[in-house]
Amino acid sequence: MHHIDMLLLIAFAGFYAGIQNTLAGGGSFITFPTLMLAGGLNPLAANITSTVAMFPNQITSSLGGRRLGGGVGELSLEKLFFLSIAGGLVGAVLLLNTPVSFFTRLVPWLVLFATSVFAWGSFRKKPLHAAASMSTPMVAAIQFCIAIYGGYFGGGIGFLMLATLIMSGQEVRMATATKNILAMAMNASAVLLFVFSSQVDWIATVALALGGVGGGFAGNWLVYRLPERMLRIFVVFVGFALTIWLFLR
């Protein structure tokens, strides 16, 4: 039985995670432990409930920033979108058929790698140009792999996509909007499978979803108003803070 104060805490976690997802990604690292601690859910149930609950936030985030999103070279936004749906479906099927413990141990290393790559891509002296960066097939392969991981666990997918998009030539504001659209795509297929799972806690889902939608609107308001350098610093700070927390917990 959920107490009202626990549901308010879960909703607040959703609001904060909604803002963080919109700006930088990593919101699942707020919702995942909150659902386990406040909601009393096991890790698998917390993971699946978090994915379902934060999906409306991803819809509002991707719609809010859709004018800023775009493709990479010959790889249109539509192609990236469908790659993300396919990968998300593979990851979701894997999650429903394998234990989550191995992937959970891998997450801190993935977030550390992604944050390091993003910091390098954002703050090195020369700007990154699409012509001198990754090939189209490489970007497609990386995005498909990120989508599989997104459907499976999803923690840090925002960082992984931001790193990839900036390395392939997008500027940070465009990359932020693009990764919101692609995160929504990869989770759409996962959510389609997860809603039929007995692991979903629907009361916690509603509380988290309401907070997440509010956070999505607040995050989109900030995307248009924060200076680009502040966006980059925020992303790197959150990434390293998440990494330290994940290694220590």
Oligomer: single chain
The dominant shape is globular
Structure class: mainly alpha
Give the rounded overall mean pLDDT. 85
Which ranges are low-confidence, i.e. pLDDT below 50, for 5 or more consecutive residues? none
Give the percentage of residues in beta strands. under 5%
Rg, Å, rounded: 17 Å
Report on this structure.
This protein has one domain (4-248). The protein is built from eleven helices and no strands. 77% of the residues lie in helices and 0% in strands. The model has no long low-confidence stretch (mean pLDDT 85). With 249 residues, the chain is mainly α. Helix 3 (43-53) crosses helix 9, helix 7 packs antiparallel against helix 8 (157-167) and helix 8 (157-167) crosses helix 9 (172-194).
Question: Could you provide a short overview of the structure?
Answer:
The protein is mainly alpha-helical. 77% of the residues lie in helices and 0% in strands.
Describe this protein with a few key phrases.
249 residues, mainly alpha, single chain
SSE topology sketch:
Blueprint: H1 4-23, H2 28-37, H3 43-53, H4 55-64, H5 77-97, H6 101-123, H7 136-152, H8 157-167, H9 172-194, H10 202-225, H11 228-248
